[in-house]
Amino acid sequence: MAALTSTAAFAATITFDFSGANSGWQNSLQYTAPNLNLAVTGGVYPNGYNITGSAQVSSTSNKGLGVKSSNGDSSEIDGSGNNDAVIFSFSQGVTLNSITFSGVANNPSEYFDLFTSNSGTPALTYLDLKAIPTYTFSSPLTASVFGVGAYYSNSSYYVSAITVTYPDIPGVPLP
After folding, report:
1. Are the CB atoms for 110 and 154 separated by under 8 Å?
2. 130, 136, 86, 68: which is closest to 105 by C-alpha?
3. What are the C-alpha distances in Å from 115 to residues 2, 4, 11, 42?
4. pLDDT in tens, 72-99
């Protein structure tokens, strides 16, 4: 007698909250959820289109993730100098539903750029999205790597949370 298996998988939605504790400046921060790992790193994109260098990242209590790309740089993700980016590398493909920012001034010059990849360095996908307290994607993207960067000198903020959906439970054998 052959065993039947279900090929359906279940999706889980999780919000990673980065505003809970102070991490200090690190090369990488690690987060986990059931069946999902996340590594957060910092990067720079001086030409505005390609992430070409690395930077340190930190989590600051009540604020979220910031990037330090040079001495004297602020603790925020900002577009001054090197154009900071925070890079989210997941252990599997996820759908990015929303990004929550803190420290945005709600003025017309606060923007972010979104980078995506399924392998290697993320490439620019969207330029000049409005950085508002919670940016919800009307057409969510699926990838294993996302980058959120600030290009304009007036843009500076923290990423306090991201919400993603991912395949959580593989198929279960049926009796």
Report:
1. yes
2. 130
3. 46, 41, 23, 13
4. 678 899 988 789 999 999 999 999 999 9
**31-73: per-residue pLDDT in tens?**
999 999 999 999 999 877 889 889 999 999 999 999 998 766 7
Q: For residue 7, name the pLDDT band (cuts at 50, 70, 90).
A: very low
CA triple 156-165-169, angle to 5 deg = 145
The CB-side HSE value for 120 (13 A sphere, CA atoms) comes to: 4
Question: Do the beta carbons of residue 69 and residue 99 sit within 8 Å?
Answer: no
End-to-end CA distance of the chain: 11
Taking the C-alpha atoms of residue 153 and residue 69, their distance in angstroms, rounded to an integer, is 14
Record the tokens describing residue 126, joined without a space.
């969207």
Mention every residue, 6+ apart, whose C-beta is less than 8 A from residue 164.
Answer: 13, 14, 16, 90, 94, 95, 96, 97
If one counts every other C-beta atom within 10 angstroms of the C-beta of residue 65, the result is 28
Opening angle at CA 74, ends 24 and 26, nearest 5: 25
